[in-house]
Amino acid sequence: MKKKAELELQKSDSAKVIETAMEILRACSEGETESRLHITAIAKKCRISRAWIYKNFGSTSEDIVSNAIDVIAPMLVAPRSPTGQWQTLSGLDWIKAYMESFVTSLEQVELYPFLFKLYFKHRALNSKIGKRLAYHEERYSSQIVRLQVESSENSQAFEKTKLISDYLVAMRSGLIFKLLSSPEVSLTAKRQELEAVTKEIMDRLK
User: Fold this and answer.
1) Could you report the per-residue pLDDT of 149-203, keeping only the tens digit for each?
2) C-alpha dist (Å) from residue 39 to 29, 34, 127
């Protein structure tokens, strides 16, 4: 059994990895590229050494950016439900829970707008960053579809579930793009609009 001090150190290291990954991707969103990063500036801002970055993210700028994406990818491509394991639900319950999780996405956009701006820029360009994001999107989508198909007795469930999943992902992306394009609208107003739209869609699906 690990000592409390060791567990706290691991937790601290994990938080530092996330913070550093954020700063790496912030730098990319502000114009730096995956082939040329100012590692010294990132290290100074995160109060760590260059050696620490190389140890935890890789020896080249491209590796560093790629690994930073791997750390942050779940936030960018996977909505988080306030009610927990919505992925294991089925039918309309699954769709409803997925759409309710859009509120969490809204809050993430407010906190980390640079991450989502980076996402849209590179997914459209199909750059190295975009390809890495696409990898995580497909991996996430496949996981969701697999869970849904396993809970269904319908032999044609895969194609139908994949189509629904793709539409939901597209809806989430469209929502995030709209939020990024409307910085003057308050978070409360955005939340109210989102909740109203979600309710309307679910009422029509019943």
Assistant:
1) 665 555 566 677 777 777 777 777 787 788 778 878 887 887 788 778 777 777 7
2) 15, 11, 21
